[in-house]
């Protein structure tokens, strides 16, 4: 694991962390970075399991958590400002013979400070657990996972954004901006972020990235803000694997975050980049840990990038 600090000196921007900190007490599961909150990182096994752990890479303190169900997949870590407590949200996919009322997913909340579990109301959808939630207005936001479905019913565009209110502890879903998608599994490529205090929706399509902003949160009114064309810089940053067609190579873009009107994205095996949406310039982030990672067989990517803030917060739960 590598920590990249743009505010540090050039020769100290990259800090490498040992793998021992990320060890899971259930080999051979390898850890998967899936969330960050106020200096705390959350990991879970690559394959479904009831285990997960929270750590602070700065203090190297770590705690392991076992969900009350198996598999119990952590899908959100957040700080509750009223209780001054960190909480974890878990989702469990019921087996078919346990589906009494036709609701496939049940949810559990864990208090790091109080060390107690709470069963929440069931919900018909589950979020994409590979992407941490975007927290805004006391609400966690995700894109609904289009692959975890019930009776082959793919969640419609009108229910493509999933939300959890940390005060009421209730779920709801809302539509994404734009028109109905011709292929709903396009939802696996879209993502949402916070941009200047507002919710932003990114839709990568080939070498294009469309960015919409939620201008009115209460009325759910979206406005198209940017249309980013990344194709012009394809030849400047060559692709490691050459036997794929150029059109396919341009689709391997994973948007990581939006910071100061810049898209932070991972471009397949090309590397990690920033795109300034005003100046329309691309800058590659170089350094140890940012080197090009060749594609593994069956497109198994091994690099996950999450925004992180250095703090001395303890994973025991209280700020």
UniProtKB/TrEMBL annotation:
Signal peptide: none
Protein name per UniProt: F-box associated beta-propeller type 3 domain-containing protein
Organism: Rhododendron simsii (Sims's rhododendron)
F-box associated beta-propeller type domain boundaries: 32-230
Pfam families: FBA_3
Regions that span the bilayer: none
């Amino acid at each position: 694991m590598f920590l990249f600090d743009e505010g540090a000196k050039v020769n100290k921007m990259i800090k490498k962390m040992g793998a021992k900190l990320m060890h899971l007490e259930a080999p051979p599961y390898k850890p998967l970075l899936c969330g960050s909150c106020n200096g705390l990182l959350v990991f879970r096994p690559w394959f479904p399991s009831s285990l997960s752990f929270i750590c602070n890479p700065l203090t190297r303190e770590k705690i392991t958590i076992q969900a009350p169900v198996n598999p119990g997949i952590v899908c959100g870590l957040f700080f509750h400002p009223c209780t001054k407590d960190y909480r974890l949200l878990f989702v469990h996919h019921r087996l078919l013979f346990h589906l009494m009322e036709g609701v496939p997913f049940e949810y559990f909340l864990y208090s790091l400070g109080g060390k107690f579990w709470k069963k929440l109301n069931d919900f018909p959808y589950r979020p994409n657990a590979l992407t941490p939630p975007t927290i805004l207005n006391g609400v966690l936001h995700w894109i609904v996972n289009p692959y975890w479905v019930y009776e082959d019913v793919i969640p419609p565009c009108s229910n493509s954004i999933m939300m959890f209110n940390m005060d009421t502890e209730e779920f709801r879903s809302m539509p994404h901006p734009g028109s109905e998608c011709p292929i709903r599994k396009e939802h696996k490529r879209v993502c949402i972020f916070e941009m200047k205090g507002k919710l932003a929706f990114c839709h990568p399509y080939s070498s294009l990235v469309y960015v919409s902003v939620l201008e009115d949160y209460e009325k759910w009114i979206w406005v198209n803000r940017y249309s980013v064309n990344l194709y012009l810089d394809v030849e400047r940053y060559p692709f490691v694997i050459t036997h794929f067609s150029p059109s396919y190579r341009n689709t391997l873009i994973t948007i990581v975050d939006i910071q100061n009107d810049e898209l932070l994205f991972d471009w397949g095996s090309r590397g990690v980049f920033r795109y300034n949406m005003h100046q329309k310039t691309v800058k590659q982030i170089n350094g140890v840990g940012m080197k090009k990672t060749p594609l593994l067989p069956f497109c198994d990517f091994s690099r996950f990038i999450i925004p992180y803030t250095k703090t001395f917060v303890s994973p025991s739960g209280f700020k």
